[in-house]
Structure prediction request, 317 residues.
Amino acid sequence: MKHALVIVTAGLALACLTATPLCAQSPVRQDILKILGEIPAPPATPQAAFEQVTVDLAKSPAAISAAKLFAGVEGQFKATEDAYNAQEPSAAAAVPPGMPQDMARLASDPEFRKKMKSMSKEEKARMAMAMANSAGGAPAVSPEPPAVQAAFNEWQQVSLDTQAEFERGVKRQQAAVAAEEADRKAHDEITEWEHAAIKALPQISSGEMSAPDPKAVKEVRLKAADKHLAVAQQRLDAFAKAWPGVRDHVQARYGAFHAKLVACDYAAASTNFSTRKILSDGQMTLMKEIQADAQQVRAEYEAAARWVAHRKAVEAS
Prediction:
């Protein structure tokens, strides 16, 4: 156990020595989980999506953006990332408490840091083992305040089901790809129907030229646009049905950890670099998951609104 702790510490030391800016990060004072509840609910219909996004019908195809609708949550994500990254300049030079003196000297050696940047992962791993074997003993680790330790322990519990969470993520991604492919295929079939229906219209001669009646063509295009809207509605219905489960999963997985992180004032009283780094990584993992979910909801708004804009373009033609 003692030897394992030395190896872990050596690995952390190597991470610092390679000048990775996130090495000594601390959690950011931001209620990340609150943002989950502020993500706009999925639109009930394509028309509802159209009414809440910014549309420029003068462009072809129309320019669609839900940036204004999602400005609040996206602004909070950016503010958190900015605060997180703002720690980097001073954090990069930090040396973890308990690092042996020879490791500390290496931290200030520019030639060694340059060498580390050019090493492969395998070479760095071998160096970590060598440093661990020469460390002579585990570094002193200060006890954490109870509230900080509670947050740390809770994150360890979250981390226990990493494999199950990974498998869930893979299945979710596969389902999303399949749904996207089915959606694309449905719209492609409608477009093919539209082209075939227009081609089958009677031709009207005008001099040496002949073409279908423009009014009949427009009727076919409007019918096709309505078919596209029906498919878009089906996609929205499926997403709206799945969204509560996505949101509830985030709350169930991270809720207790987040509550304890807030309770310990985001590890402000932590006495150990490694604890702050682990809790910071946990906080950022939570934020990235919520951010990805928000991006998906935004994509649904824009995709649905695009078909309303398409029908309006047909109407105006």
Summary: The radius of gyration is 28 Å.
